[in-house]
């Protein structure tokens, strides 16, 4: 196991976009540093978040425009002001104004070329060229094509014909440089934040979606690694069979990997992806880990995921290749859903902890492996995840029989209110890491959930405000972490 898992720790789940601030979503600004200060005061040493990539208009971090890039919307304008790239940044209230300020900073950067910062920029562009060249070109062409998906571009651009790409590089040179600048800034700001977090004994736990979005630089640049037809349309798409969240399964729509092709260079695409993420985070969760053992393949024209079937994947070979590059492989396996014994065996072979979700535990069966008495040290326990309702709302929506079972198991009386009994149960668990969504610490209801699987509206928008923190939360949480040996 990775050294991080060898002691008991407490964590919080909060995506940076949920931080307070003046824009519609949070950023790498003062509030992010204040949040780290709050974590240090409570004794929490794990800050878990969702993927950081640039999103489409739906805001989903699991369908990003790049598997490597950071989201420019996370950029703090104050950082640019401190480096004299913005004289007096206007008070922005939306991302159109934010983008305009980034454009002004880029112009100033080009004009002044501050020696140290410009040298760092050039080094970044050279070091990240294996993905940044394609990403910056992709985003610039996409902008010139009114943000349409690359499958709708003129065929020479869609198919990456040499002459068309060269012409675009010439005509869009300034826009390409601007995209590189944005990636440099978001990278610098994030690494400053990570350094601050680590100095305050807070480790960052990131998230890698197992699949990537069809409309992404990765698939446009390396179509041969994915199951696409001659025009770039998926032949099969990813999903999961019927589960806790949906009676007809979930139809994700991502193209599937050509694992046979990926084997030929010992999974170079995955090794480069992991290198990018491990530079951003101390630990990384692989979303839908079971897809590395077998994945649910659905015909591209299917109406529901029920039409899919299982196909074996070379997860053992992939993890061996990753382990060769990163001997202390700091991964967490998201092993939720229909998990077979061979998936558990793959996870355990590489010393990866799995996940235990307490909201899944109380179906009345004493052998339910999510119940605390079934937990193991090599695991992360959660009250719920970003896909679950808040614990308060979850409990309120249970029928009386289920609520009674929860109370009996946890030793509660009828007057006890959630979510703190479930938080206590997570912290008391034998699991090495206990991670609680920020909504549960704030005792919030259903209107504050982050995502409802299978829906397209109203997701990824939740934010908290500092005024929501109860006055006794810091002391209360510190006491519980001490009580359950997680300081």
From TrEMBL:
GO terms for biological process: carbohydrate metabolic process. Its EC number is 2.4.1.25. It catalyses: Transfers a segment of a (1->4)-alpha-D-glucan to a new position in an acceptor, which may be glucose or a (1->4)-alpha-D-glucan. SUPFAM superfamilies: (Trans)glycosidases. Keywords: Carbohydrate metabolism, Glycosyltransferase, Transferase. InterPro entries: GH, Glyco_hydro_77. The keyword Transport does not apply. Gene3D superfamilies: Glycosidases. GO terms for molecular function: 4-alpha-glucanotransferase activity. The keyword Transferase applies. It comes from the Bacteria. Belongs to the disproportionating enzyme family. This is 4-alpha-glucanotransferase. It comes from Thiohalophilus thiocyanatoxydans.
């Amino acid at each position: 196991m990775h050294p991080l898992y060898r002691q008991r720790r407490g964590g919080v789940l909060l995506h940076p976009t949920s931080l307070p601030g003046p824009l519609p979503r949070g950023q790498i600004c003062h509030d992010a540093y204040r949040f780290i200060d709050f974590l240090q005061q409570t004794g929490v040493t794990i800050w878990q978040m969702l993927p950081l990539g640039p999103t489409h208009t739906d805001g989903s971090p699991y369908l990003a425009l790049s598997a490597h890039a950071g989201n420019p919307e996370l950029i703090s304008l104050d950082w640019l002001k401190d480096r004299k790239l913005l004289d007096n940044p206007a008070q922005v209230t939306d991302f159109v104004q934010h983008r305009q300020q980034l454009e002004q900073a880029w112009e100033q950067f080009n004009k002044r070329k501050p020696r140290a910062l410009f040298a760092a920029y050039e080094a970044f562009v050279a070091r990240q060229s294996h993905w940044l060249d394609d990403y910056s070109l992709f985003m610039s062409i996409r902008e010139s094509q009114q943000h349409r998906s690359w499958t709708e571009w003129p065929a020479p651009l869609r198919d990456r014909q040499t002459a068309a790409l060269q012409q675009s590089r010439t005509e869009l040179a300034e826009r390409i440089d601007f995209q590189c600048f944005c990636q440099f800034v978001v990278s610098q700001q994030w690494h400053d934040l990570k350094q601050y977090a680590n100095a305050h004994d807070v480790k960052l736990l990131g998230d890698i979606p197992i699949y990537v979005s069809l409309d992404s630089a990765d698939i446009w640049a390396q179509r041969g690694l994915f199951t696409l037809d001659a025009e770039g349309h998926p032949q099969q798409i990813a999903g999961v069979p019927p589960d806790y969240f949906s009676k007809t399964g979930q139809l994700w729509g991502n193209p599937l990997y050509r694992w046979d092709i990926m084997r030929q260079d010992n999974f170079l695409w995955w090794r480069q992806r992991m290198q990018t993420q491990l530079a951003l985070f101390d630990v990384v969760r692989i979303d839908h880990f079971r897809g590395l053992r077998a994945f649910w393949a659905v015909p591209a024209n299917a109406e529901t995921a029920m039409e899919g079937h299982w196909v074996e994947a070379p997860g053992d070979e992939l993890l061996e290749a990753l382990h060769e590059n990163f001997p202390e492989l700091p991964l967490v396996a998201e092993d939720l859903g229909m998990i077979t014994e061979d998936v558990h065996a793959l996870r355990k072979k590489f010393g990866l902890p799995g996940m235990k979700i307490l909201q899944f535990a109380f179906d009345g069966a004493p052998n339910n492996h999510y119940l605390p008495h079934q937990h193991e040290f090599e695991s992360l326990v959660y009250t719920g995840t970003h896909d679950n309702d808040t614990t308060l709302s979850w409990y309120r929506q249970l029928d009386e029989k289920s609520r009674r079972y929860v109370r009996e198991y946890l030793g509660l009386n009828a007057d006890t209110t959630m979510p703190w009994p479930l938080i206590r149960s997570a912290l008391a668990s034998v699991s090495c890491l206990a991670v609680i969504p920020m909504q549960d610490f704030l005792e919030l209801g259903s209107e504050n959930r982050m995502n409802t699987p299978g829906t397209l509206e109203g997701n990824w928008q939740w934010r908290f405000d500092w005024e929501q923190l109860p006055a006794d939360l810091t002391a209360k949480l510190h006491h519980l972490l001490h009580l359950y040996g997680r300081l």
